Protein: Alkaline phosphatase D family protein
Amino acid sequence: MSKLTRREFVRNSLMGISTAAITVGLSTSLTGCSSYDLINADFLHGVASGDPQSDRVIIWTRATPKDPAVDSVAILWEVASDANFDQIIARDVVSTSASRDFTIKVDVTGLSAATIYYYRFRSRNHRSPVGTTKTLPTGSIDQVKLIVVSCSNYPAGYFHAYGLAAQQSNIDAAIHLGDYIYEYGRDGYASEDAEALNRQVEPAHELITLADYRARYAQYRTDSNLQAFHQAFPMIAVWDDHEVANDTWRDGAQNHDDSEGDFYVRLAAALQAYAEWMPIRPPVDTNISSLYRSFEFGELINLIMLDTRIIGRDKQLSYADYFSNTGEFDYQQFNADRYSDRSLLGSNQLTWLKQQLDTNHQWHVLGQQVLMGEMNLPGAIVTGQLSLAEFFELAKLAEIAQTNPEALTNEQMQLLQEKGPLLQMPQLPYNLDAWDGYPKERDEIFNHTKNNNSNLIALAGDTHNAWANELNTIIEGDIVVRNGFEFATPSISSPGAESFLGLSTPEAVLQAETALRQLVWSLKYTNLSNRGFLTVTINRQAATANWTFIDTVKASSYQELIIRRHEMAVIHQ
Structure:
């Protein structure tokens, strides 16, 4: 198979995305076909809404025809101002077909701002669940409340966090920051308990083709907790890497090789399935294929959704490339490469972002995938030569050696002689897949926010853990400029730092959290072990983050882990 050119890939991707929605204004007539044209079909994958504006919103469902030989179906949709549908304000019949995997998206226009609506779909013999959605406000408003989620891995455990999040009240919109699905096969990441939990993925193999990605979305959307989450409020979503393949970048991915075919073909298939199954509006700019876009919550917030994964990302750096054959690390070359003109956003998106940051809103909120805060750790930890516990134990021995060397045993002195030099390694960013791997572009954004006095809040997912970071810039060694604050959501089910750090007890988790706050000067909060979600409430005075956690994803029943609940507020500057 010949490789697609960049232009061909973009064109084909847009063809898949741009045909996925039908725009319909308010109407009470049934146009296109009569009610008796409806066929027998189920709604096995629930309903969803998304991409709200002040006058419109996308509503979504998937029809499953009773007759598998059917190639197209007609479905009635209805929007009402009340949950009983006594006041139906819009209805119509829309068709879909196998070419869209029988998914249906309607862009319902002509709605009123800051208004709750109810919607449903009907076939000849079935009625879908009723979904609740809400349009965005305009003008001067007092408060916005958002739920932020990411990283839902089906075989890793139950989606309890989605179910608990669906029960929250007064939510204006849900923000999904990616890894909505995972691409691995049954022997892949976090699948060790899948059979016992009856959560083995379909298809059994890794996702490569359009049919593969469609089947995985279909399986995820049968989960009752995920259905409840979509049903409760509109979603504003962006992809991360696992919607395609692990550690995706502009022209490839860590989890893709030549044996799996042309990467651009796989990418186009993944994006088409995403466009079909997610309640998103097609891109407006036909020169690019991306999900970066903005949502205005009156004059209070400009929510700026970024694509830090696909459209402009240069390939991630790898520490392995900077070790010599003798095990020495080339700091000079590493820093030269890290601070070169490497991009996470691409020039078009960066220019657009700066324009968005110039808008006259009290708060600018970035909805994006990866951590933006600086997360540097001792080099020996980052490069895997010392664990977090080993580093602190070695540092403790080194301190004793300075003050009371006689207190050390011969074994401890030998350990210091062998590994003590590792304590002197410079600090390194722990995750080169995040903004720390692209610091020059991050500094350009921070300089822009500093110059226009933006009140910046960055939202992040990806890491599976909860974080709160100050977004700081150090100038001339001592002067610290705070550019904003970052709130990161824990995962829905994917394992976090407790897994790869080997934190097997609550005491070990708390010690590691304390240690990280000591090592990372801009880190104000972290939870390294619990799954859950983030709620962000923003008013004129402050942005307040509330982290909610659950006690398990490995059992069919769960409880909120109240002891780990945490709140943090950032005052408007």
Remarks:
- The chain is about 25% helix and 25% strand.
- Residues 183 and 363 are 35 Å apart (CA to CA).
- The first helix runs from residue 6 to 18.
- The first strand starts at residue 22 and ends at 24.
